[in-house]
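The passage that follows is intended for readers who have already worked through the single-chain material. We present the inputs for a multi-component assembly, then the predicted structure in tokenized form, and finally a short commentary. You are encouraged to pause after the input and sketch how you expect the pieces to fit together before reading on.
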Amino acid sequence: MNALDIENLHKSFDGVAAVKGVSFAIKKGEIFGLLGPNGAGKSTTINMIAGVVRLGTGSITAFGYDNQRDYRHTRRMLGVVHQEVVIDNFFTVDQALQLHAGYYGVKDDPAWRQLLIERLGLKPHLNKVMLKLSGGLKRRFMIAKALIHRPQLLLLDEPTAGVDVELRHGLWEFVREINQQGTTILLTTHYLEEAEVMCDRIAIMNHGELIALEETQKLIRRLSRRQLRVWLEQPLQEVPAILEQYLPQLKEDGNVLLLNLPAGEGAGKILTLLAESGLRVRDVETDQSGLEEVFIHLTGMKGGDGGNQSRQ
Amino acid sequence: MVAISQDNKYYPWLPFVTLLRKEILRFWRVSTQTLLTPIVTASLYLFIFGATLGERLNVLEGFSYAQFVIPGLIIMGVINNTFANTSSSLFMSRYLGGIVDLLVTPVSPPQFIMAYTLAAMLRGLLVGTVVWLISTLFAVLPWESPLLAILMAILASFLFAQFGLIAAIYAHNFDTLSMYSNFLILPLVYLGGVFYPISILPDPWGTFSYLNPLFYLIDGFRHAIIGVGDTSYLLAFGVSSGIAATLFVWAAWLIGKGYRLRA
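Having made your guess, compare it with the prediction:
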């Protein structure tokens, strides 16, 4: 049984389609990344899973339970960290955590609450109301709140937006620990290098559609561009025609030759062609582009378009 | 290392009890605004109509003006505060986005409605009780049918808790929300016989007053306390119960559907 099964999900707002026939499944124990530019339909999808947005058409099943018919069951299994910071200024951090456990029908477990408080660095702020917390603390509190009822599937919608590097690393480390204990994770993030490191599989959405779904490393290997950097013994004035297919570029006054390797092709053939051309090679290095380049390639976005493509 | 305990037993009533507790704590935390202010306002009315102007007024044979007006002021306190509680709490949750914290939980629509309703009723009835206690300084009420009076107050608080939920769902902003209380509830309460018996109004105003749904709540409550009313208990309870049931079904439909709560 999967942690989550999504079948042919559709959702429109005022006649404008936000999600168009999305289907995917998340295996138990997986860290699954749902990526896409702003407005791709990621949050709408997550919000339909969580129950914040009404289902258009299609079906969502969590651990075998339908999230419409058996909503009380599925919601108990889900923990949600919303993209927007949710504030309730009537209660302190500690009180809000206790109340939140109750909403899920779970009795307050002081030991578990204490553990979350300590791990997320909330201990000095327990008696503060939300308004008094910094942006980073609010994010940490939201993660504690999402975990207070020990969910089996944690939905993280941009959990580290606006959070400094150190805290981001701490949060991801914590998420990984939770995952190792058996909690399945579905996350969206603008930090693609983090998604690349964290996620077992990645789905990419664009214009409401799923345009890629694959194991992270396979996706990168399949779609990313590899570049061969060749240091020559003697500077080159003109690139031999035989190398044109590799889109060559000369750098450093002709001392360095950059060649693009087609997907799935090793460097051996190029090295043979270099030897046949009479070029003497001093050193070689290959660069593998990462998820960011794959993302840009798939979504057709350029750097600075305001989507997930930019490293922030 | 994070240790996740497997003891995660589900208590089906806990979401309701927790939401009810949270709603009660919410108004209790700001009791100056939610309890003290309406009590001070009602006390001023009592002072004006009970100890000053009231001495010179006589609208109902056999009763002082204070005895006449106090039941109206009690039920007015109940109505205003019950409405204020559900409407402001739910609207603030919608406005500030905190509602999503509830929408993702297993709190069912009936639990949602009953928790908001009971907390608001508690606030309204608390204010009503304190207004009555203060009123004993100005007049002694005969309490002809105390059980009926309590039932009427409970019915009034239930009705306006539903109306508050509906208003919070339909309101676009704070302005529209305040319009419900300033341009609907206030005139209907004032013209519904809080300060005078509608039987003294000349036609057509007297007849029109029978179309005011709040008249039945106010008159029914006063009738139960002083034993005299402009209409029968049956009609007062019948009309008020009908309106309360209609509003409850309306609120339940909106919340069940997630209208303006879930996108």
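Commentary: Chain A touches chain B through 43 residues (CB under 8 Å). Residues 302-312 of chain A have pLDDT under 50 and may be disordered. How closely did your sketch match?
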